[in-house]
Structure formats: C-alpha cells, structure tokens
TrEMBL record:
PROSITE patterns the record matches: B12_BINDING
Keyword Metal-binding in record: yes
InterPro entries registered for this protein in UniProt: Cbl-bd_cap, Cobalamin-bd, Cobalamin-bd_sf, Met_Synthase/Corrinoid, Meth_synthase_dom
A Pfam family the protein falls into: B12-binding
PANTHER family recorded: METHIONINE SYNTHASE
Residues annotated as domain B12-binding: 112-228
Species this protein is from: Persicimonas caeni
Cellular component GO terms, alphabetical: cytosol
Protein name: B12-binding domain-containing protein
SUPFAM superfamilies: Cobalamin (vitamin B12)-binding domain
Gene Ontology terms describing biological process: homocysteine metabolic process; tetrahydrofolate metabolic process
Disordered: annotated segments: 1-24
Transmembrane regions listed in the UniProt entry: none
Upper lineage: Bacteria, Deltaproteobacteria, Bradymonadales, Bradymonadaceae, Persicimonas
UniProtKB keywords: Cobalt, Metal-binding
Amino acid sequence: MCRAHHRRVPEGMMDSASRTSSSRQPNYWQSEYIAAALAGDRRRAWQVVSDALDAGLSVASVYKDVLAWAQAEIGDCWADSEISVAQEHMASAVTQSVVARLYAYIESERSRGCVLLGGVEGEEHVLPAQLAADLLELEGWNVAFLGTNIPSEDFLKAIEDERPDVVGLSLTMAPDLPTAVTLIRDIRKRFGDLPIVLGGRAAAELREVAEDLDIEICDDLETFRREV
Ligand code: B12
C-alpha cells in the first residue's frame, strides 16, 4: 500500500516507539519526510530530519522510524507500480544523502568491540547495511563498514586485516543466499568460531540452518543487542 505521501497526520508526531508499517497511518515526520524524498528534494528532506531532531526525536528513531520506514514504503510504491524505477532511485538517493549527514549526529563511546559489516557478493542494497552499521555505532560498537557487493575472497581478506570481534553480513535478496552460505562456511574454515551475525530482509530464510552454520540471525538491531 502506497498512500503515505498523500496523508498528513500531525497528531502523534512524537510517536517514535511505534514501528510503523504501511498498514498504519504515517506520523507527521514520516509523511513530511516521504513527501520530500519522493519529490527528490534533498534540502527539504534534511530540513524535516533536522526539525525532528530539534523537536526531540532521537537519532535512532530517525534512522528506524523515519528513514527505514520511508525506504520500505518507497519499495512498496515501486512494487505496486505507483512510482517508476527513476522515482525510486531519486528517493533512495535523497535518503542516502540524509544518512550521510545524520552520521555526524552519532555520539557514542564505541567501547563494545569491532563489527565488520558488509553485504555479500551480488547484493546491491547498501542502504539496509548502512543503516545497520550506523545503528550499531549508536549502540557503542566500532563498525568497519565495507558497503556491499563484496567479492567473497575480498570479504575474507578484510576479516584477516581487521580482525573483528563479530562479522555482520547484510542480506536483502533471497537469491544471494547460496553466496552467503558459501561465504559463511569459508569464514568458519579460516577463522574458527568467530561470531557471525546475518541480518537484513532475507536473513530469516536461513533460520532453519542457522544452528548448523553456527550463526545468529538478527532481523533487527534489537535481536542483535540480545544475541551478541
Ligand atoms: C532502494 C532499493 C533498491 C536500490 C538499492 C540502492 C541502495 N543504495 O541501497 C536498487 C535500485 C539497487 C535495488 C535493486 C533491486 N531491488 Co530493491 N529495494 C530498494 C528498497 C526500496 C529500499 C532498500 C532500503 O533502503 N531499505 C532500508 C531498510 C528498509 O532496510 P531493512 O532491510 O529494513 O534494514 C534494516 C534491517 O534489515 C537491519 N539489517 C540490515 N542488514 C543488517 C545486517 C546485520 C548484521 C544486522 C544485525 C541487521 C541488519 O537493519 C536495517 C536498519 O534497521 C527496498 C524496499 C525495502 N523494503 O527495503 C527494495 C527491495 C528490497 N528491492 C527489491 C527488488 C525486487 C530489487 C531488484 C531485484 C529489482 C530489479 N528487478 O532489478 C534489484 C536487486 C538488486 C540486487 N541484486 O541486489 C524488492 C525485494 C523483494 C524480495 N522478494 O526480496 C524490495 C523489497 C522492493 C519490493 N517491495 O518489492 N533496490
């Protein structure tokens, strides 16, 4: 369902606790943000975020409840053919520019060890991985962020170079699952029991073999917090 940008709901503007889904009415910041993103208006999009922060929304909430929400909504708009590929790209580019600015607002001790995080070979969705990387930094992890579509051999080399405490793999597309499984097995072979966490939309599809692969599946950062 993709009607978010037509609605404007000032009530509940601070409803940051609600993890909104498309079936629910967007709150004020969500509808303002998605309108700016779909218009390709980077300045306005940042202004919305800046106003939300000034009004007391936390940085984490902006990432999760505004930006991730908007991206999911944009995906639904595209899937329902309500926007073109070009409009989706434009809106996602707006979010990418906002994320780059928002990063400066992350203030944390980074005292919880190093997570090496990246997307597997073939995976082009960098924004989910980027949001996860930034949210983990907000929670005090030191994140070495590789971006995505990393050739598996280079991923292994990065682990060797960075010597992280945890490896995070971001997987949005199910067709990339076999690549992820091969990479996980290679990490096990070379780095023994180094903790591996798989996150992203497609991660849950490996739930049944997670024990066998000796990995944690984290659909969201809350699970990461609990499990790692
Ligand atoms: C933008 C976008 C693109 C852009 C990506 C650009 C970029 N810079 O990232 C481009 C144009 C490249 C793209 C391409 C494609 N896309 Co696309 N895309 C999207 C869209 C609209 C937004 C992605 C995004 O920004 N998500 C941000 C948030 C919403 O992601 P998130 O998964 O919630 O992330 C959170 C958690 O998962 C978690 N997390 C993520 N990684 C990790 C890792 C760890 C370790 C942890 C702990 C947590 C964690 O933390 C994040 C923050 O809370 C999504 C819609 C969507 N719902 O995501 C479609 C979507 C993912 N795409 C889709 C499709 C179909 C495609 C294409 C196949 C289209 C095509 N025909 O070419 C290609 C595939 C490319 C490839 N091989 O990877 C479908 C996938 C459907 C499916 N069944 O899997 C979606 C869902 C759209 C839809 N509604 O149908 N896409």
